Amino acid sequence: MSVPRNHIPPLTVRERATCMCGRGTDCSSFAPGHAIHLIQARLASATPSEWIDAVVESSDGESGHVRLRSIFDATTIVVWNGAGASRRLAEGTPVALHGRYHVLADGARWYNVLRDA
Known about the structure:
Structural class: alpha+beta
Mean pLDDT: 83
Number of helices: 3
Distance between the termini: 57 Å
Number of strands: 7
Helix content: 10-25%
CATH class of the domain at 49-117: Mainly Beta
Oligomer: single chain
CATH architecture of the domain at 49-117: Beta Barrel
Strand content: 25-35%
Low-confidence stretches: 12-17
Order of helices and strands: HHEEEHEEEE
């Protein structure tokens, strides 16, 4: 006779996971707007033609939103990042946004961003 195991399905474990960036520590999630994943960074590096050059118009450290102005066509792009991009980016900072892989680059610092529609 076999003894039944107490198996916890993966869905239950995923539902309990929370990101630590909301508590002021390093981001522990790779969801859009949180920590950047190695594969996400590599894919963005491998597709250099999809970067959009922009300038930071404003950043709100409380909400995590950053308003960008595209240099190419002057469109406004609003992104959100929970890992601290809005606290580090000052008005007038030149940045680059990867359109497909949602990466915001400030020099050597890269952020995973959630683009507002």
